[in-house]
């Protein structure tokens, strides 16, 4: 059960804003110079609003491992979290954010599925097919399973084996056909057009475990323990994977997370840096060293306000302009432990989880 902590919507953190406007950047000219020109033009477009801490609560008895925002609409808000305590939980709140002060998030379901802990989560939206959304979960038992919240157990019909180690990360490519999973130094591609996804491709690296994945409609990216980044194109018809870029020593230590926004790929690392890369060729665009005062970075997410959110060992959630990676607002402070996971909704929610098992829900 969750243990509420007395923090409410009255807690507010003000952020800097700008009234200047800039023209839209052209879609072409995506080389390093072109991206930097766009960065300068786009820097003045965002107007960060204040961030409101609606709720902070004890969600798990151990560190958060992963989180996703299942729903973020005017009528319903749902969050899924997993932890090293080997549990998986669904949190829900009815109504818009103005009502969260009253009702808050409540535990709707909690599972302790076999094979835990669960290290990774990925959302498969199936509303266009008239089906409820399902969540893929990657676990310690070298498997990927499926959950249709708020079911009391995982779907026993969907168990994706063949992994050589812990399933550290999962990614679903927009369009809903391809699921990607990673374990040890191996990337696997699964065809979700079947009731039970089928493995159609396997890519093994020479060295360096894959720690994070992110996918666009036509690319999949891998972040590695040796500090490197790699990218593969996804064929339009059969989905064949072709390596198109590799950036060795992209970071000085393991790369802990990645996120995509437009033509840029963002990465964070134990080396304390936040970097932006050209998503086409992995050329460096912006290098923000010592992003959290020299502390390790563990996670990042693109917020519904367009800003880049990062979490690290300094116990802070920091917000960055997505083009120049300059601080866009004051850091968000509420955690008493290292921030280990971040997730963003499509409307107004950002969720942060820490090493102590606490979750914070922000409106941005």
UniProtKB/TrEMBL annotation:
InterPro entries: WD40/YVTN_repeat-like_dom_sf (IPR015943), WD40_repeat_dom_sf (IPR036322), WD40_rpt (IPR001680). It comes from Chlorella vulgaris. Keywords: Repeat, WD repeat. This is Uncharacterized protein. Gene3D superfamilies: YVTN repeat-like/Quinoprotein amine dehydrogenase (2.130.10.10). PANTHER family: F-BOX AND WD REPEAT DOMAIN CONTAINING 7, WD40 REPEAT PROTEIN. The keyword Repeat applies.
């Amino acid at each position: 059960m969750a243990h509420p902590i007395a923090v409410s919507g009255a807690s507010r953190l003000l952020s800097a804003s700008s009234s200047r406007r800039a023209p839209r950047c052209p879609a072409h000219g995506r080389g390093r110079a072109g991206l930097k020109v766009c960065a300068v033009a786009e820097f003045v477009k965002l107007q960060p609003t204040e961030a409101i801490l609606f709720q902070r609560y004890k969600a798990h008895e151990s560190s958060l491992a992963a989180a996703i925002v299942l729903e973020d609409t005017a009528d319903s808000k749902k969050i899924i979290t997993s932890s090293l305590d080997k549990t998986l939980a669904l949190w829900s709140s009815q109504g818009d954010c103005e009502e969260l002060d009253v009702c808050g998030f409540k535990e709707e379901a909690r599972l302790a599925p076999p094979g835990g802990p669960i290290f990774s989560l990925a959302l498969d939206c199936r509303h266009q097919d008239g089906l409820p959304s399902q969540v893929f979960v990657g676990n310690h038992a070298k498997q990927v399973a499926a959950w249709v919240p708020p079911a009391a157990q995982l779907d026993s019909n969907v168990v994706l084996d063949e992994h050589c180690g812990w399933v550290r990360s999962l990614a679903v490519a927009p369009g809903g056909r391809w699921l990607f999973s990673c374990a040890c130094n191996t990337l696997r591609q699964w065809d979700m057009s079947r009731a039970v996804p089928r493995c159609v491709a396997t890519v093994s690296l020479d060295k360096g475990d894959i720690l994070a994945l992110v996918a666009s409609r036509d690319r999949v990216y891998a972040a590695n323990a040796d500090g490197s980044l790699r990218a593969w194109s996804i064929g339009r018809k059969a989905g064949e994977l072709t390596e198109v870029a590799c950036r060795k020593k992209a970071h000085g230590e393991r790369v802990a997370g990645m996120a995509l926004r437009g033509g840029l790929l963002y990465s964070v690392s134990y080396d304390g840096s936040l970097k932006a890369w050209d998503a086409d060729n992995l050329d460096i665009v912006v290098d923000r060293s010592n992003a959290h005062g020299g502390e390790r970075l563990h996670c990042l997410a693109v917020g519904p306000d367009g800003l880049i959110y990062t979490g690290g060992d300094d116990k802070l959630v920091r917000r960055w302009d997505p083009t120049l990676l300059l601080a866009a607002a004051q850091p968000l402070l509420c955690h008493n432990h290292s921030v280990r996971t971040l997730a963003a909704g499509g409307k107004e929610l950002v969720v942060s989880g820490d090493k102590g098992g606490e979750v914070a829900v922000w409106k941005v």
